[in-house]
């Protein structure tokens, strides 16, 4: 796996002439950065993908006897909004000696942002949360486009961003979920690593791990880059990045310990409330059940098997096309953690979290193969959005 791509001076990563030092664009363009293709192209892609999910939710909501707001206010949305409104319990809540589901399972940065903006604007909590999720999804697409542009060129960035935007798991951008925030922060962190901006990489990484535990996978990327940097140049300042990244996660665990008196409050809540735990036996069990009961497997199981297949294809493409090592490692780590976490598995939302693997497919496929992939992914996006609103049998 190649970490960097060496090109002659004055050459951009897509082979074109690099921009000269300084900003020589016309003054009008400098005053309107939102009109730059790096903003316009991913924005158009993202807006079109949200039209698809909004239409699917609008159709599914009345069938499920819900308002459109009710279609948004489901699954983890309710927990994030509950954390934003009421905070976190002061002790570990148990039922029959076992921890039960509470907001302890939900990391603080995302709901605290929603709380702050709600108080600042006076807008309804649900509306604020939906806007934060939607805008963070847009920021994620812009950041992803910029990241792919740096190592594969603008056309590949268009394809990769489009495939990620219509990937089935992306429907959570239309709910109140952390995926947009985490992908945005991690992508900025990956760009910062490539630029050797250690403090920036560490700070955004810490914010990401204060948003979701899945962002701890970014630590693997940081360690890889920093070890290489120390071997080459002995720049000890690079250690700032891996030192800062886990800070968000650690701070939340310590805060819960002080608040509840139990250092394991988060882990116990995850296990007791959502039956979520790491298990080496879970993937073989899932595969054997699918193979022996191919026509009676549940929709959730089918999604996990399909997600695993997509992740494997993405990993193969990432390795064959020499995707930068920090991206491969982040995607692989997230996918591995999800794969071995029962009952999560590699359902579409967690493949979305392992976004470099989806990007690798978008970069690799071209022409008819890419168009087929986009159509299939869009159909799956519509179906998953519809069924996640219409029934509780399929969950994100």
Q: Topology as H/E string? A: HHHHEEHHHHHHHHHEHHHEHHH
Could you describe the largest sheet, including whether it forms a barrel? 2 strands, antiparallel
Question: What structural category characterises the helix and strand content?
Answer: mainly alpha
Give the CA-based shape: globular
From the N-terminal CA to the C-terminal CA, the straight-line distance is 32 Å
Please estimate the helix content. 55-70%
Number of discrete domains:
1
What is the average per-residue confidence, as pLDDT, rounded to a whole number?
Answer: 89
Helix count, per DSSP?
A: 19
Structure summary, number of beta strands: 4
Percentage of residues in strands: under 5%
Q: Specify Rg, calculated over alpha carbons.
A: 21 Å
- The residue ranges in which pLDDT falls below 50 over 5 or more consecutive positions are 1-25
Report strand order across the widest sheet.
1-2
Give the helices and strands, then pairings.
Layout: H1 27-31, H2 37-63, H3 68-72, H4 76-86, E1 94-95, E2 98-99, H5 109-121, H6 125-152, H7 154-165, H8 179-194, H9 198-209, H10 218-233, H11 240-244, H12 247-260, H13 265-274, E3 277-278, H14 282-292, H15 299-320, H16 325-339, E4 341-342, H17 348-353, H18 355-364, H19 367-390
Antiparallel strand pairs: 1-2, 3-4
Helix pairs in contact: 2-6, 2-7, 2-19, 4-5, 5-6, 6-7, 6-8, 7-18, 8-9, 8-10, 10-16, 15-16, 15-18
């Amino acid at each position: 796996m190649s970490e960097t791509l060496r090109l002659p001076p004055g050459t951009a990563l897509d082979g074109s002439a690099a921009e000269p030092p300084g900003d020589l664009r016309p003054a009008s363009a400098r005053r309107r950065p939102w009109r730059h293709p790096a903003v316009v192209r991913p924005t158009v892609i993202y807006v079109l993908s949200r039209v698809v999910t909004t239409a699917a939710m609008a159709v599914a909501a009345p069938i499920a006897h819900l308002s459109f707001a009710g279609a948004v206010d489901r699954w983890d949305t309710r927990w994030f909004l509950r954390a934003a409104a009421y905070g976190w319990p002061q002790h570990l809540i148990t039922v029959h000696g076992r921890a039960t589901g509470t907001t302890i399972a939900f990391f603080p940065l995302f709901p605290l942002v929603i709380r702050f903006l709600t108080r600042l604007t006076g807008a309804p909590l649900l509306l604020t949360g939906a806007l934060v999720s939607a805008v963070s999804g847009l920021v994620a697409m812009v950041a992803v486009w910029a990241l792919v542009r740096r190592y594969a060129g603008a056309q590949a960035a268009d394809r990769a961003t489009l495939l990620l935007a219509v990937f089935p798991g992306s429907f959570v951008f239309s709910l109140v979920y952390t995926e947009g925030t985490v992908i945005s922060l991690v992508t900025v962190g990956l760009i910062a690593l490539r630029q050797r901006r250690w403090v920036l990489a560490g700070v955004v990484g810490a914010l990401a791990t204060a948003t979701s535990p899945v962002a701890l996978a970014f630590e693997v990327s940081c360690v890889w880059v920093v070890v290489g940097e120390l071997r080459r140049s002995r720049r000890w300042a690079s250690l700032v990045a891996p030192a800062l990244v886990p800070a968000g996660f650690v701070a939340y665990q310590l805060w819960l310990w002080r608040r509840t008196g139990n250092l394991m409050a988060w882990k116990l809540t995850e296990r007791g409330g959502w039956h979520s735990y790491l298990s080496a036996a879970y993937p073989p069990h899932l595969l054997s059940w699918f193979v022996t009961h191919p026509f009676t497997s549940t929709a959730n199981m089918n999604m996990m098997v399909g997600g695993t297949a997509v992740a494997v294809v993405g990993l193969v493409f990432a390795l064959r096309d020499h995707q930068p090592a920090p991206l491969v490692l982040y995607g692989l780590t997230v996918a591995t953690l999800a794969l071995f976490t029962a009952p999560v598995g590699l359902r579409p939302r967690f493949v979305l979290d392992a976004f470099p693997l989806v990007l690798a497919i978008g970069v690799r496929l071209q022409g008819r193969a890419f168009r087929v992939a986009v159509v299939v992914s869009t159909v799956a996006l519509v179906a998953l959005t519809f069924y996640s609103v219409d029934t509780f049998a399929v969950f994100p």
